Amino acid sequence: MKRISELFFLLLILLATLAMLCYPQAAYDGACRGLETWITHLLPSLLPFFIAADLLLSLGFVRFLGVLLEPVMRPLFRLPGEAGFAVALGFTSGFPMGAILTASLKEQSLCTPQEAARLAAFTNNSSPLFLLISVPLSMLHQPQLGVLLLSAHYLANLTIGILLRFTAEPCRQAIVPRRLLRTAISQLQQYQAAHRQSFGALLGQAVQKGLDSIIKIGGFVLLFSVLLSLLQASGLLNILQTFFAALLKLLHLDPQLSTALSAGLLEMTLGAKFAAECQTDLLQQLMVISFILGWSGLSIQAQVNSILAGQQISSRLYCLCRPLQGLLAAVYIPFLTVLFPHIFSVNVWQQLYPAAGNLPYYLLWFFPLWAFAILLCLSVLFRLVSRLLARPPLFK
């Protein structure tokens, strides 16, 4: 199987090389667009976070935070308290900060490889600035929709994080110290005493690691931008559009959104832009954009896989959760529209599926109960499956 996959990737590389020779202008334009995206958007927004996060890790702040968050992270996600640092910065900094911090926690033996794989599966998100400004303001020209997209995106991630706890082995119960803050400060002081380094050395290491990470990300952005241009120039992108158009028609959604899905398969930003430019119903636009943001594109997935592979962390769980997060984020959109009655004044179910239009719109106000019930059913199903798999066979 491994030999077949190696031959398959070799064939893809050969085809991509031939396509660059056949369509040199498209390859050049794609490389320029990818380089511009990296310089103008990713470099200034991510590099300061990379440096600051590495300094916090080196100064022992994660040990301090781990003691404070242990009573929350263990029962909720079955993860150590130090993982809360990756959750917090992953949700506030954007791709691929969650993967970088997860790899750093694994490198410092603050989590096991299995815990790191589960942590990476739900801590790689779009940044709040992208969700609150870039998509709603620059693309949709309706800034009030940013809260809707952000809520759906983060709810989908948290749902996956809670569901993944049922795939983990039962862990010890969190023991809350009587003097939690004093214990956390003590852990911080012990770490700093055991890892004494000058601030200049720490800063130099943080800058070097940050530059290594941002250069690697830039290479992936440029590569997938070239691939997308080659697919457009060769006409292969039209095949993907035909497939997605048939799928959208089956789901009673506008087939025009197939262009956005085919582009979003590779690159998230371009897919969201195409969906915003499509002349169709706003609710359908938001659902497709939310799915693309959850899927995050093969470009970002390749970045995350590369970072995790550096610490021998399996990325299989992360890849399996990408389509699930996209589906959850898209499904959450109609429920959350009840928070915006001035925009969605009619029954959203009637817009999507006229046959279900008799559903009272006020029932959407019970969205937290619906979400809790779905989560409870899924968790029970996960628990039953894990118990059945753990039973010894009836016949040997």
Provide key terms for this protein:
396 residues; disordered C terminus
The major beta sheet can be summarized as: none
Distance between the termini: 29 Å
Mean pLDDT: 81
Q: Give the uncertain stretches in residue-range form.
A: 361-365, 392-396
Q: Roughly how much helix do the residues carry, as a percent range?
A: over 70%
Number of strands: 0
Question: Number of helical segments?
Answer: 18
Radius of gyration: 23 Å
Query: How big a fraction of the residues is strand?
Result: under 5%
Protein architecture, described:
The protein has helices at residues 2-22, 24-58, 61-77, 83-93, 97-107, 113-122, 128-139, 146-164, 180-194, 199-234, 236-250, 258-264, 268-277, 282-295, 297-309, 316-336, 348-352, 367-390. Residues 361-365 and 392-396 have low confidence and may be disordered. 75% of the residues lie in helices and 0% in strands. Helix 6 runs antiparallel to helix 8 and helix 6 (113-122) packs parallel to helix 16. The longest helix is centred in the middle third of the chain and has 36 residues, at 199-234. It is mainly alpha-helical. The chain is globular. It contains 18 helices and no strands.
List the helices and strands and how they pair.
Blueprint: H1 2-22, H2 24-58, H3 61-77, H4 83-93, H5 97-107, H6 113-122, H7 128-139, H8 146-164, H9 180-194, H10 199-234, H11 236-250, H12 258-264, H13 268-277, H14 282-295, H15 297-309, H16 316-336, H17 348-352, H18 367-390
Helix pairs in contact: 1-2, 2-5, 2-10, 3-9, 4-5, 5-6, 5-15, 6-8, 6-16, 7-8, 8-14, 8-16, 10-15, 11-12, 12-13, 13-14, 14-16
